[in-house]
């Protein structure tokens, strides 16, 4: 499966309006999250998050093998996932029917987390691609951002009241989804709710913090500095190491006075930043990027949806020239038969858009690390809760 063409081109548009006021609207009719049809993913159900996550592992000598995803027999914690801007509905806000685009993004971003957790992913009446196209064409924003957030908040409250039976929960989002989670965290004042958060992963979004971490987005939650730390946040935006954010970038530069964009490198937390555990789409992320080159020239393409290339991709946080971002590099080696080309740039009319960076593959470049961190952070959360009881 792939993201829809327009979806990943437009996702960044909403992320950059993170702190903009939304137009006022009459109160929206509440969504009934007791109805399972209003969830994109639920545990123990055949849906987008139950999709085949088998990965072809291609080693540095070109040898390959297929590894299926084997979920834990009895996951001890939950994951709550909010998807990015993908809706192809023609209206300013989406409907509550899961289309192919919502199913596809859950397959690509959320399904792998079920290795260690039970995944809950609500549908919500998000701001659509159609609405964002209008904004980028100079028209006023007609979508109801408050309704979109209201849905996510209602789904979260329903989950807490009906599905969470005491285990902690990891919050996961990308772009518009990360914005929704950010607002949820900014409004979260209940100590009991805060105590449930194993970690938050608002990926592909400018989480702004002051240098001392005391001001900005949800400062009550510190940035993660260890794989064995709970109650912390992992956030970043991604660019190629050799193509840093330009002056007018959409990502990586804070808009608030005295603020920086948060960058936490998941691979570094696990001790191997020089070799991130990238799990990439075998055939490229979407038609809005260049096609993925053959992983090994002259060899058949993988038959799985995903590819792992151990040692090929590295990541590091960079903070320079007023920008803060996760820099991805390819560890090119003439003796390594694997491609040195990783698709992921946004391409329009044959031209790369430098201000978008690698937004298309924010999660894939460290997907294996993100999943591994959930298990480590849960163990830290559980130990801390046991000590408090």
UniProtKB/TrEMBL annotation:
<dbReference type="InterPro" id="IPR021440">
    <property type="entry name" value="DUF3089"/>
</dbReference>
<keyword id="KW-0732">Signal</keyword>
<dbReference type="Pfam" id="PF11288">
    <property type="entry name" value="DUF3089"/>
</dbReference>
<dbReference type="InterPro" id="IPR029058">
    <property type="entry name" value="AB_hydrolase_fold"/>
</dbReference>
<protein>
    <submittedName>
        <fullName>DUF3089 domain-containing protein</fullName>
    </submittedName>
</protein>
<feature type="signal peptide">
    <location>
        <begin position="1"/>
        <end position="20"/>
    </location>
</feature>
